[in-house]
Write a structure and sequence with these properties.
single chain, 121 residues, mainly alpha, 3 helical TM bundles of succinate and fumarate reductases, elongated, 4 helices, 78% helix
Length: 121
């Protein structure tokens, strides 16, 4: 029996993106149910959102949703740009820039969420 080839970075990135896509489906369903289907009228007011996000389980789910969406989108943009046939150096720079932008986006989302919970003081 021939051993399977070791996974390379592109295969790993694809698997992570596919996994994050499945995670997104689950988290999106939970998000829609909690934010729109259970709430009278289909929308929450500001006080409802603050109360909702003050629950540690909900906050963890919403932050996981943020990380999954950002990571999934970043891997998709990275794949598209790398498919353009960039040089190895340019590809590495694209990966670094997209990674840095993703960290900034998640940090901003976490900061904004903490501000909402704290009352936007």
């Amino acid at each position: 029996m021939i051993p399977a080839p070791p996974p390379n970075k592109a295969r790993l990135a694809w698997l992570v993106q596919a996994g994050s896509g499945l995670l997104l489906l689950l988290l999106l369903c939970l998000h829609l149910i909690a934010n729109h289907f259970v709430v009278p009228g289909g929308l929450q007011g500001y006080a409802d959102v603050v109360r909702y996000l003050s629950n540690p389980l909900i906050l963890t789910l919403e932050m996981t949703f943020l990380v999954a969406v950002t990571g999934h989108a970043a891997l998709g943009v990275r794949a598209i740009l790398l498919d353009l046939g960039l040089s190895q150096r340019a590809g590495r720079n694209v990966s670094l820039v997209i990674g840095a932008l993703s960290v900034v986006a998640v940090a901003y989302g976490a900061w904004l969420t903490s501000r909402v919970i704290g009352g936007l003081r």
